[in-house]
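Posting this for the archive.
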Amino acid sequence: MVFSSLLFLFMYLPIVLMIYYAVPLKFRNLFLFFANLVFYGWGEPIYVTLMLFSTVVDYTCGYFIDKYRTKNKKIAKTFLIASVCINLGLLGFFKYAGFITDTLNAIPFFSLPSIEVPLPIGISFYTFQTMSYSIDVYRNDAPVQKNIITFGTYVALFPQLIAGPIVRYKDIAYQLDHRKETLSDFTKGVRLFCIGLAKKVLIANQMGLMWDQIRESGEVNGWLGSLIGIIGYTFQIYFDFSGYSDMACGLGNMFGFEFLKNFDYPYVSKSITEFWRRWHISLGTWFREYVYIPLGGNRKGVFRQIVNLLIVWFLTGFWHGASYNFILWGLFYGVILIIEKFILKKWLDKAPSFVQHLYALPLIVFGWVIFYFTDFAELGDFIVQLFSFSGIVIGQSALSTTISFLPLIVIAAIASTPLMAKLHGKIRSRKVKIIVDTVFCVFVLFVCTASLVNQSYNPFLYFRF
């Protein structure tokens, strides 16, 4: 992973950018399409055919949906259903087949062969994107794409292919054929990419190391040691995923695209409702647009709204992985959101800000406990450690680890708020801002490169989702 990251930074990306800007405008999508396939094939060459199959299926379905949308609604709907079923079928087989067979085998009289299928990287993201295309065309929310190469560029767009954000077709349809690459967008993209790189390499990786070290100490951590450990994971998953999203958006800017923001400082939230407006925005938007609203949303009474919310949050959890803890994690948030909406909202709105934060943050942190442990026995043991206030407060090993990582914990806490962005926005002089941004980017590239060379720990958490 470290070697691949360095190859991407210093070989693949510079070469692709140079060729992209060298070729004529009308051939840029064609070049980008093949560059995307090379990028994906670099990690998993066998699954390039799967992505191409998905591209052809949805391109064909979109063509016939558009052709018959006004002439014969029934035929158009048939192709829409075919697109959705094929996409969900592929996702279901590769991501959930083993989980389903294992679940059925736990029931008496079932004896199915165990299925172990490697999960194609990014399949959860690009299947949702291709489905959004078919649905948007059917709804007449976006124009049909008649050039299969251009459509393939959208499906396989490498900046956000393997870990999001989920880019809906209607948000990018115009840009695919009419984007304009400018120097200001390119420099903005470089800065955003460097911010994401710093989040990932300098903060997320280090917080992951801290969490691993504390977790290995197990029962001797004490409740405070366990709490600090899961706070480390709370920072790791945020800076890992938001860092990758920033890099994806920055790369998109370099190629003339503008992707919607995927994270908006979720840890400053004052409620769980606000947290989910700020966390993984593209996923929440996708489920709202294509599941919650079509189910009836809040238009069919309170009972139906509660059922719709539980369905959406069950699916949100299940989307993250084929394991019961993800389902529990999704339903955990679904229940809290329902309670907030119908019971707590009036009280929360009147409470002081610090009380709202004290309410939201512990629930968010506890949510990551459920999210992390796929083994329910380990989950139960950790929860017991977390709430065992009668024993030691913090173990020696956890204390040493915490002290060694303390400066970085403070940096992570500050970086998870809008403080630095506000300070950057207060720089009035354009010349000073350019100097600051240039120094920042050079520093980040140098330090991150040194860090990647000297360490082997460089996981991307959301690759497995």
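The chain has a mean pLDDT of 88. The chain has 18 helices and no strands.
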